[in-house]
Amino acid sequence: MTVITPDLEHSQPKVSDSAVPELLQETFALTRRLFIQLVRRPSTLVAGVLQPLIWLILFGALFAKAPAGLLPGEMAYGRFLAAGVIVFTAFSGALNAGLPVMFDREFGFLDRLLVAPLRSRFSIVLASVLHITSLSLVQSLAIMGAAAALGYGWPGGAGLLLVLLTLLLLVFAVTGLSLGLAFALPGHIELIAVIFVVNLPLLFASTALAPLDFMPTWLAWLASINPLTFAIEPIRNAYAGNLGLSQVVLQAPYGNVTLGAALLALAVLAMALFLIIRPLLDRKLS
Amino acid sequence: MRSWDLCWRQPAAARCWAEQLPRLWTVFDLPGAGVIELAGITKHHGPVRALGGVDLVVQPGSLYGLLGPNGAGKTTLLRILCTLLAPDAGQVHINGIDALNDPRAARGCLGYVAQEVAIDKILSGRELLTLQGDLHHLPRQRLEARIGSLTELLGMGDWLDRRCGSYSGGMRRRLDLATALLHHPPLLILDEPTAGLDLDSRAIVWEVLRRLRGEGTTILLSSHYLEEVDALADRLAILDNGEVIAEGSPAALKERLGGDRLTLRLREFSEAHEAERAASLLRDISGVKQVVLNRAQGNSLNLVISDAAVVSAVRERLTDLSLPVFSLTQSRPSLDDVYLQATGRTLTDAELAVASRRDLSAERKAAMR
């Protein structure tokens, strides 16, 4: 009997031209799941706004009578603090990006996603980035609104764009870090521990709460290489209406940092982090 | 229950099905051509060997059972098949697709029901199914129709729009089965699908599996319930300590053992020396092929006899020796006997032995992505 054995080499499913719609379909579905979670369990969203709000009110009040000359240009402390707390809000929100992924790993839900013929497993990462970016930006905008209500100012239209761009770059970088940790660490206990340890020290070792010249030299050095500072100072300048890219935003011990350089540093950091975690993601998601 | 929509097929799965049709023919010429072909699969979890060179062929349209105690390597083997785990060595072919080289094509051909049902408690059943359908790139209208017919088949209509967190274990398992069947895979892989299920859900799962097989789906399921594999499977492999120790149809495996089984309990809890004395005396009877002392069961005696007529001889001998008889049960060989014959211990004993040897943290680490 003659049997026409299928030529398996050629009967494999080909990479069809429907790659882009399929990518969109799976990314949209994964993102929607995260948003359904967010809407039905809004405590993350609310807590992420409440905590910085309390910082803003309590810290603002604590240093309301800060000695004259502490802040450049006799700025009110609350006005100074606002930029720091806005960045802290976005930073904390993004730092939690890895948690849902870690829970999916631990509960085996990730297996469900990985056993499906996803067009690209990068859509899992992309969905996380989309989700956490919108979450962080919404939280930051809420804090900006609160700061405005407290009389700490509001950036103009162009200033707002600069604020959002700065936050976006920081959120990308921190999301990359957190997703990397979510795949590198063994479980959520360890991830929460790292988040806990990283969160506040990075805030203190930045220019969020006090200017550089108020700090001892070693701390000023730390603050001048802290990515949070690179986000805080452009936002502080956006609030002050200084939007030029060549505007010096930080007089660091190693030299002056312009607004353009600060943004570039954040962008490079974000790209570097995603490049660093890529092999890890490839391994874990292959 | 109305007959469900076999007529439409999702593109990726359609390719798998189309591929299977000519392959059905090749079966007659090349008995080796299966929907699943595993060759020389080995896998270690840390220092512990989980699989030591497993070969397995599952023919199209059959229901294949993978039997073995907990820790025998069943889950590891299934995870390798589902492309969730890479073997240390060996070949994996699914529908002729080299699953190690082209895992995405292989994934399109299979539905997987994991042992521990991972669901997102906050989603409703419909939302989870829709997510799963989108991950398989099903067109929305077909997806909705498919969700409708599957949930009707699985008897979960009322629960579809409630959150999964409120589901019972049985309902979760049905939902999981539905997600695995959404894209109409020609191959369904289930890891202990009825473990810990209520009777209703178990009956539904069995019914659905039989039906799917009737419609041409190839099914591979693992189980440590002997009767489940006996009732459902066309063929089975017994996996023990990471190796296939017996393979064949349930009937053939039992047939190969030959003879009837006789379980004799002198007393409810016999003393060992009395049981041993009886054992040595019963061995002399012609027609008694084997006498095994089962210490785990109150020192009962398990006899293999050539035919039913030997029972009366055994009974007479016991009366002559004025030994008491608490119970004397005759039975056909079961899969447990197959297991006993292959491994020298019962399935229960094997589970106990394996439990102490397992490195659960290494397994968990290997299982986590």
Automatic annotation (TrEMBL), chain A:
GO cellular component, one term: ATP-binding cassette (ABC) transporter complex
GO molecular function terms listed in the Swiss-Prot or TrEMBL record: ABC-type transporter activity
Keywords: Cell membrane, Membrane, Transmembrane, Transmembrane helix, Transport
Major place of residence: membrane
Record has Phosphoprotein as a keyword: no
Superkingdom per UniProt: Bacteria
Span of domain ABC transmembrane type-2: 43-284
Cell compartments where the protein resides: Cell membrane; Membrane
Any single Pfam family the record assigns to this protein: ABC2_membrane
Protein topology in the membrane: Multi-pass membrane protein
Transmembrane segments: 42-64, 76-103, 124-154, 160-184, 191-212, 257-277
This protein's record includes keyword DNA-binding: no
Membership in a protein family: Belongs to the ABC-2 integral membrane protein family.
Record-given protein name: Transport permease protein
